[in-house]
């Protein structure tokens, strides 16, 4: 048995017994890498990844191409590192879907936040609700590069009408920005709110998700002001 084989087995046993408690970022990452790199010491590769990207979160945010630029990382390992955050997001979305009613801002945050986990692009989500605030449909409406998501007001209307929504909640993210509404966000929110009102549907809230927090148009009072844009 090679020296790093024994170390790897100790890491696996420690994880099976206590989870990642007591693991630092290097240990956690080298253990994960061991499943795609079975015959090499993964500690130097874990160091190289963290040196390049700065943190575990940034490693999982990196693209396949960026990951493959790190020595020791091949296509299989890059695919694994890209797969992990997407599985985490999918699992979180499934758990959030267990929430049948969205009656408060916190409910809306809990339901919609998983859709933006580890998301590199800016995207717009729409939550359709019935008269009891029961979830009818949650759908991605558009996606773009950072800070360049396009909102099609007509598609918002069509989606709301198709799902017979009584009210809707919008949400988009600022992947590399702050949870702060921009002038453009305000104008778009006002346009959508007015358009929905013409067909008897209310815009309950518009959430902006960012790494450090969430902005709610309803809780901030800005939603009312947007109706005059």
Low-confidence stretches: none
Q: What structural category arises from helix and sheet content?
A: alpha+beta
Mean pLDDT rating: 89
Looking at how many chains there are and whether they match, the oligomeric state comes to single chain
SSE order, as H and E? Answer: HHHHHHHEEHEHEEHH
Q: Kindly state the percentage of residues in helix.
A: 40-55%
The total of beta strands comes to 5
Strand count, sense and barrel status of the largest sheet are: 5 strands, mixed
Strand order of the largest sheet: 2-1-3-4-5
Shape: elongated
Q: What are the salient characteristics of this protein?
A:
229 residues, five-stranded mixed sheet
Could you explain how this protein is built, in words?
By secondary structure, the protein is α+β, with helices and mostly antiparallel strands. Helix content is 48%, strand content 17%. Helix 2 (25-33) crosses helix 3 (43-53). The protein is elongated. The N and C termini lie far apart (70 Å).
What layout of secondary structure does this protein have?
Layout: H1 3-18, H2 25-33, H3 43-53, H4 56-61, H5 64-68, H6 75-96, H7 105-112, E1 122-129, E2 135-144, H8 153-162, E3 167-173, H9 183-197, E4 202-210, E5 213-216, H10 217-220, H11 222-226
Parallel strand pairs: 3-4
Antiparallel strand pairs: 1-2, 1-3, 4-5
Helix pairs in contact: 2-3, 8-9
């Amino acid at each position: 048995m090679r020296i790093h084989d024994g170390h790897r087995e100790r890491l696996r046993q420690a994880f099976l017994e206590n989870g990642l408690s007591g693991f630092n970022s290097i240990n956690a990452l080298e253990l994960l890498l061991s499943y795609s790199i079975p015959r090499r010491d993964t500690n130097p590769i874990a160091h190289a990844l963290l040196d390049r990207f700065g943190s575990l979160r940034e490693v999982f945010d990196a693209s396949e191409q960026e990951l493959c630029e790190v020595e020791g990382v091949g296509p299989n390992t890059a695919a694994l590192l890209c797969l992990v955050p997407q599985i985490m997001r999918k699992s979180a979305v499934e758990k959030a879907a267990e929430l049948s009613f969205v009656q408060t801002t916190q409910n809306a945050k809990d339901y919609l936040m998983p859709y933006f986990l580890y998301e590199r692009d800016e995207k717009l989500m729409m939550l359709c609700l019935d008269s009891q605030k029961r979830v009818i449909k949650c759908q991605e409406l558009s996606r773009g590069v950072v800070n360049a998501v396009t909102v099609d007001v007509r598609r918002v209307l069509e989606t709301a009408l198709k799902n017979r929504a009584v009210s809707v909640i919008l949400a988009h993210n600022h992947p590399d920005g702050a949870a702060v509404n921009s002038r453009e966000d305000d104008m778009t929110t006002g346009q959508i709110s007015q358009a929905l009102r013409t067909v008897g549907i209310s815009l309950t809230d518009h959430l902006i998700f960012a790494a450090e927090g969430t902005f709610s148009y309803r809780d901030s009072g800005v939603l009312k002001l947007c109706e005059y844009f």
